[in-house]
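Example 3.
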Amino acid sequence: MIVAKQKPLSELTAMLDGYRNVLAVGCGTCVTVCFAGGVKEVGILASALRMARRLDGQPMSVAETTVQRQCEAEYIAPLAEGLDEFDAILSLGCGVGVQTLAERFPDKRVLPALDTTFMGLPTEQGVWEERCQGCGHCVLDITGGICPVSRCAKQLMNGPCGGSQGGMCEVDSDTPCAWQLIWERLDRQGLADRLLEIQPPRDWSTSRDGGPRRIVRDDLRLPPPEDV
Amino acid sequence: MTAAETPFEPKIVAFCCRHCAYAAADLAGTSRLAYPPSLNIVELPCTGRVDVLELLRTFEDGVDGLLVAGCLPGRCHYLAGNLHARQRVDYAQRWLEDIGLEGERLRMINLSAAMGAQFAELATEMAETIKGLGPSPLGTRRAAGEIPSIGCAACGDPAPSLAESAHDRGDGR
């Protein structure tokens, strides 16, 4: 899932300075299950903003709604009805949700309530950890299902480095060394000898280094109107 | 006596677990132990039912203080409901302070059903704390219709339309 966390209230009140009628829009997918932008979090944040602004002597109305999926135009299209009365939209979606709203409603101010942080999973209740950076060339087949791109601070492809101490990373003593984990996993599976094969330098053009990425599936695209 | 001279009587809501604090309040009453009449008790099946959203909205509605009263640690009928409530109260206190309200306006206490005297004592103590802080600066309840809603696709409200809104607060209350 995409994992996000709410921005501090002070940052949001500064961002919303001058607005008097705001629509807070949550998202029913990733940010709901990481407790950052679902129905309940929209309610909590909206209530907090209303109270903070009332105490500042600048009351602000904050309406609440949550769409099932903020990152697809079809799901947010119904918001168009009644949107005129709002000064701004406060999105509790991930960065994709914010931009989808901004693209769909280009005349409306769309503001982010969350800091989108990473793609990851909950390792225990209330704890989320990064597992994927969307590098565009998955190597999990080589590394025993443990990602060195997202979990190794140096993104090494032939680790571990000298900073691996007692199974932990030198960057943070609470962070396991990804390459220690990879070694242990492959050793457990009887495949440790595969680590003797040196991986060549990666082509990072599939990752962010290649600029914004785009996937086109011609088999899924709608035919041009003139051909229909 | 004019309104200005009327002594401040804080509005306090107490979310009480039915297995302990609610029975303790009852025991205080049958024992003829006085506790502040401004305490409005809401019976809950367990304080684990308490959510941050309800805590904040209760303050938004204009209460001066809020008490969450659950079972003694280790004595929850649902094992850990009172422990979850404690975490949520701590979290809500941080929200209150960010908002600009005093965190002391929200407090959690733990009692058994036999602790009627302690309930009266703690309720009185809470009322004194709130009297010391003064009325909530948020003032009276929100004017009706202050918060429009345009529905909620995630919880089943089908019409994301201001005009056709089925909710008036976003939570159906």
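Chain B touches chain A at residues 51-53, 56-57, 59-60, 95, 98-101, 137-139, 142, 146-155, 160-163, 170-171 (CB under 8 Å). The longest strand of chain B covers residues 65-71.
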